[in-house]
Design brief:
Blueprint (H helix, E strand, L loop, with lengths): L10 E2 L1 H8 L3 H9 L6 E2 L5 E4 L2 H13 L4 H9 L9 H32 L18 H4 L11
Antiparallel strand pairs: 1-3, 2-3
Length: 152
Amino acid sequence: MQNKSPRIKALLTPGEVARRSGVAVSALHFYESKGLIKSTRNSGNQRRYTRDVLRYVAIIKIAQRIGIPLATIGEAFSVLPEGHRLTPAEWKQLSSEWREELDHRIKTLEALRDELDGCIGCGCLSRSDCPLRNPGDKLGEQGSGARLLEDK
């Protein structure tokens, strides 16, 4: 008697991808609506995913965990051919770009933390003098009304 090895399915249902990746089916649909992953449809018009989608979902979750916006993830994926498996060199390139963005965010958060220490207990909440909310009254230079201030 011969043991048959289990057949590896080429296409996975949304439920199978959700179970294996740890994300909800609704998240898969959301990622698909944003163009981050792709599915095909079977004869019953049900979604099916190729196995490589598991790697893409893992990358999406890692990137989200470190604060990379979905739009940035989408830009990175957009240069890859459909169904492409990332090589180690491609992953290194992609992760180094995200590392630069992460380093910038860390630097910004550290600066905010360090400035915040001086404000604890101050209670001034001055819109014109607060070094956190409106350093040097940069907002006032732009005229009246609401402004968004973010140093790049």
